[in-house]
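User: Predict structure, ligand LARABZUK.
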Amino acid sequence: MTTAKICGLSTIQALDASVAGGASHLGFVFYPPSPRHLAFEHARALAARVPSHVARVGVFVDPDDDLVARAVTAARLTIIQLHKTSPQRVAQLRAATGLETWAALPVKTRGDLESARSLAGAADRILYDAKTPEGALPGGMGVRFDWALLDGFRHPTAWALSGGLDVSNVAEAARRTGAALVDASSGLETAPGVKNVDKIAAFLQAVAAS
Ligand SMILES: O=C(O)c1ccccc1NCC(=O)[C@H](O)[C@H](O)COP(=O)(O)O
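Assistant: Predicted complex:
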């Protein structure tokens, strides 16, 4: 069975649609340049609606200790997801928070997968995400990578698939890669940061049927 993380939530409507549709994980972005960035009080109000069986994932880009600590408290995070963060720093934040910790691995070529081993020693899960253009946000850009790059790859730890997933391709992505957990953000939006409840529902139906 494939489960899904809906990332970059910022409204009650989108959050409720994600929970109602069966999402296993909800992602809250703490990165000011992102259109999905949440202030702590906003995150606190959203997180309070999340039932306990659904994981609350905080998304960060090479964060400092204070940002992570404040976000963990505000959104009662159960998982931290780290982008552009060295394996050493991933391990440090994992130890400091005591939380399940994911490390994003940007993929464009097979060679990019080489860092999986060092991240696996530091993180509980690797999130294979598409490499985004230089200067762009490291995630939430709707960029897809060639899933064939994962063919035959010996995953060193638990993993999830991300990058450009939407209702039209998620079933094929799960089938092709064998992903047990998929993650999506901009494919469920009508504009950057604006989630659409119908797209969320359709995506989660496609995941459930895959
Ligand atoms: O979503 C963001 O704005 C974001 C900003 C900075 C770092 C990571 C970010 N998102 C991380 C995610 O987990 C996204 O769901 C993932 O990159 C996939 O996004 P998309 O290709 O738009 O589905």
